Amino acid sequence: MATTPRPEFRDELRERLMSTAREAPLPAEEVPVPRRPRSRRRPRFPLLPQFLSAGLVVIMVATGMATYESVPGDILYPLKRAAENTLLRMSADDAERADRELRSASVRAREVEELLGSAAQGGSDLVGETLKEMEDTTRSAITSLTRVERRDAKTTGTIRRFVQEQRHQIEEMIPKMDEEDQRRASGYLDYIQGLMIAE
C-alpha cells in the first residue's frame, strides 16, 4: 500500500525549504544596484544673472534721463523728439494734442536757454532752428484749440499761464541772441501776446 508522509514531516520539510530560500543569495542579475544620488551642479557664478539684470536696469534709467535732458545737437536728441511725436500721435482729441504741444513748446524754450548758456554752442544755427520749432509747435497747439467746440476756464487758464511763462523766458534770452534770432524771438513774443488779447 502507498503511504503518505506524516503531517509533521511535511511541516518540517516546508520550514527547511523556506529557510534555505531566505538564506540563499540572489543571482547577480537580480541583485539591485544602489543608485547614486544625482549631484546638482552649482553654477560657478550664482549672482551673475542678478548683476546683469541690475546693470541693464541702471543703463536703461541712465539712458532715459540722458535722453530727457538732451538738447539739439546731442546724440540722443532725435530719440527725445521721436518720443514726443509718438505721444502727439497717441492724443485722444484736439484738446489733449494741444496740451501736449504747449508742453513741447515749453521744452523747446528751455532748450534754447541751455543752448545760449553753453560755451560750445557752435553758432546760432541750433538756436534759430529750435526757436522756429517752438513757434511752429505753439501755432499748431493754438490751431488744435480752435477746433475744440467749447473753451472752458481750464483751457483759457492753460493758455494764459503758457503765454506768461514763455514771455518771461524769451524776454530774458533775447539779449544773448544774435540779431537774426532776436528778430525771430520778438516776432514770437508778438504772436503769443496776441493770444492774450484774443482771450
What's this, in brief?
The chain is rod-shaped. The protein has helices at 7-23, 48-69, 77-89, 94-117, 125-146, 153-173, 179-198. With 199 residues, the protein is mostly helical.
Description:
This protein is mostly helical and 199 residues long. The protein has helices spanning 7-23, 48-69, 77-89, 94-117, 125-146, 153-173, 179-198. Helix 4 (94-117) packs antiparallel against helix 5 and helix 5 (125-146) runs parallel beside helix 7 (179-198). The model has no long low-confidence stretch (mean pLDDT 79).
Question: Could you tell me the strand content as a percent range?
Answer: under 5%
**Sequence of secondary-structure elements:** HHHHHHH
Instruction: Name the shape in a single word.
Output: rod-shaped
Q: Level of helix content?
A: 55-70%
**Radius of gyration (Å):** 42 Å
Runs in which pLDDT lies below 50 for 5 or more consecutive residues are none
> What's the rounded overall pLDDT mean?
79
Structural class by secondary-structure content? mainly alpha
Separation of the first and last Cα atoms: 138 Å
- Which sheet architecture does the biggest sheet show? none
What's the total number of strands? 0
Specify the number of helices: 7
Describe the oligomeric state of these chains in a short phrase: single chain
